[in-house]
Amino acid sequence: MFELILLGTSVGLLSGLFGIGGGTILVPLLLMLGYETKIAIGISVVQMVFSSLYGSYLNNKKGTLDVVMVLVIGLGGFSGALLSGTITSSISDKTLEIIFLAFASFALLRLFMKTHDYKREKQVNKIVLFIIGFIIGAISMSIGVGGSLILVPILVGFLHVPLKKATSAGLFFVVFASVSGLISHALHGHVDYKSGIIIGLASLIGVYAGIHLKHHTLHVSLQRKLLIALYLIIVLYLLYRIFEV
Fold first, then answer.
1. Is the pLDDT of residue 8 over 80?
2. Residue 142 pLDDT exceeds 50
3. pLDDT digits (tens, 9 = 90+) for 96-137
4. What is the pLDDT of residue 42?
5. Whole-model pTM?
6. Is 90 exceeded by the pLDDT of residue 11?
7. Nearest to residue 197, comparing CAs of 37, 45, 69, 23?
8. How many Å apart are CA 127 and CA 133, to the nearest integer?
9. Closest to 46 in 3D by CA, of 12, 96, 1
């Protein structure tokens, strides 16, 4: 119980700070604790429902949430995530971990590329935004991550959205994807509700602290460096786990 509460608080902190659903950190930590891969993914999805809803509420109060833009992407994510339970069930644990590694590696490499401070955001067709959301929702929820792992770099690098606004959008996207993903994973028996609810409730405390740090304490450059360090640790652990003899 204590481990799960500590885990939830820590994951919530990182979720609010970086605009990620929490699964990027939670799934590897649950694997370390001995949970089966598919169950770890199910627990992660439960936690994401809690942290993303609360975090998005706080971001909206602080005025960094573009509801209209994310609504279209979010509806795409909801539709795609309905397939996640089926996808997870049809893939081996090792393959799921390799896909997870690919996601984390992409996000890490993207952060090393130069980010321009664009004055104007690009206007993108809503159908394109929906398709982006659908693909990210289907794949990300299949491995227990919220999708902002990929969405935030897309928003910043291709749509020229400011980083803080992009992280807020990323967390709001997770609301749609995680609710849909929870339905899908529950139907396939991947959800440990007790562990998921304990971690989810504990994560709310961490989310509040993370949102506060993001808006009042951390400079964008420091936020980026910490995010790079976090992804690097995750990538190294997954490499060790996948290729250990």
1. yes
2. yes
3. 989 989 888 887 887 777 666 566 767 777 888 899 899 999
4. 92
5. 0.78
6. no
7. 45
8. 10
9. 12
Measured CA to CA, the distance from residue 132 to residue 210 in angstroms comes to 27
Look up tokens 């936690």; give the residue.
Answer: 47
